[in-house]
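Homework help thread (please don't just give me the answer)

Our assignment gives two proteins as sequence + structure token strings and asks us to describe the second one. The first is just a warm-up. Here they are:
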Amino acid sequence: MDHAAVARRMLEALGGESNIKAAAHCATRMRLVLNDKEKINQQALDDDPDLKGTFEAGGMFQIIVGPGDVDIVYDEFTKITGDRQVSTEELKSVAAEAQGNALTRAIKVLADIFVPLIPILVGGGLLMALNNVLTSENLFGEGTRSLVEQFPAIEGMAQMINLLASAPFAFLPILVGFTATKRFGGNEYLGAGIAMAMVMPDLVNGYEVAETIKAGGMTYWDLFGFNVAQAGYQGTVLPILLVAWILSMVEKFFHKHLKGTVDFLVTPVLTLLITGFLTFIAVGPAMRWLGDAIASGLQNIYDFAGPVGGFLFGLVYSPIVITGLHQSFPPVELQLFATGGSFIFATASVANVAQGAATLAVAITTRDDKLRALASASGVSACFGITEPAIFGVNLRLRWPFYIGMGTAAIGGAMIALFNVKAVALGAAGFIGFVSIRTTDWP
């Protein structure tokens, strides 16, 4: 690839330097905020042999270049335009100013918080799935022992895998506290610190709070006449999201009203103290209840609707990916894992494979060499969980492959509901997603 030539062709198709408001890039795509989208020469971008597709999301026009090439093309692009290089976070702010209703902005905030955590969540989820394979009984037929029982020599390895898999989820509030506080404009290390307090070993483990309260074994602090439960928040998401926002607001307030050395010394102390008291007295318990209610409500609706609900969710999952709403699913899924398993991940796997299969069908049937190359690569990618190149680069452009993928996913979603298939961990939502499903549901 001649990266400089690609950058020049791209700029020309986008309407020239005067039409570029801001630009950044991620691992595979150029992300641009444009002054006038009517100036885009879409045909030129579609016909370019070095570009793999375009789409618009979150107020940004995005061009799929590919890993290993996009950063070089971006450098050449900014040399021509003279624009200063901005981060994706800065670009998102520019895009948000340009457009976006309240729902769009809320989704973007969740995406900003959880997208950086996807590698550790997927890594931990797949390790958890591997641990399930090693320790589950009846996996290879009724009455069969687990692999660990059959081969005692691997018990230590299984325990190590379980440790590595459990850590990201047990201490998830710390990870979310860091990214959420950073997103809300506070000091991310204060956010991580308050989250550490929420998962301290001195507290009743978050996974055991309900049972401990039911058994009458909960311990309490006496704070100004209030009995405050010494409950931990391991594995939870919603409490730390609100706590991070409150902490950021408190910190900004003190930064605004205190100056110099006083600000440096006093602000962190008061921020942690005030936020900590609010967390354990009110915010944490309320958000724990809300999280449980959301998860229970979703599960009840899904159970009540049965295969019809599964059909409808499978039908709309790929359109949800287009809007970016799927970025709001991780906190809901994590809550569902704590209550028995998630139908969302199972349906997402079906929908991703469906879109990937439709894309591969295009690769087999098309006579266009560029489209065949694009469909082959993006179809395989979609089958292993990365659907954007397939959806935006192929299926949406041709429309019917996208519709067929939706219909296929709907049938799969109905079957998932019919057989009550649940995921117990995150992972790659595609062909290998089955390892994140309850082992009893594998058949």
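The one we have to describe:
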Amino acid sequence: MASGLDSFVNHTVSIITSDGRNFIGTLKGYDQTINIILDESHERVYSTTTGVEQVMLGLHIIRGDNVAIIGQIDEEVDNRLNLTNIKAEPLNPVVH
């Protein structure tokens, strides 16, 4: 998995953690255990009653053992989203 992340460095990524949280930011680095360093990051908090809340975090580190999935964001498409109108159930934690 680590070698596949090379193409994501310095690009905007979305990371979903095993506890159901969604972080968006610029991937600045990672190590062999997939500890992730995000810059200019924020967390998107989903709700069924209000739009998506974006909690600004700045420089943020995510432990590799908490990473469930990493994907690159198409910034052009992401910028067109009106997050205040999107309502969704929050993700449940991954149960092993």
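TA reply:
I won't write it for you, but here's a hint about the kind of observation we're looking for: The helical segments are 75-80.
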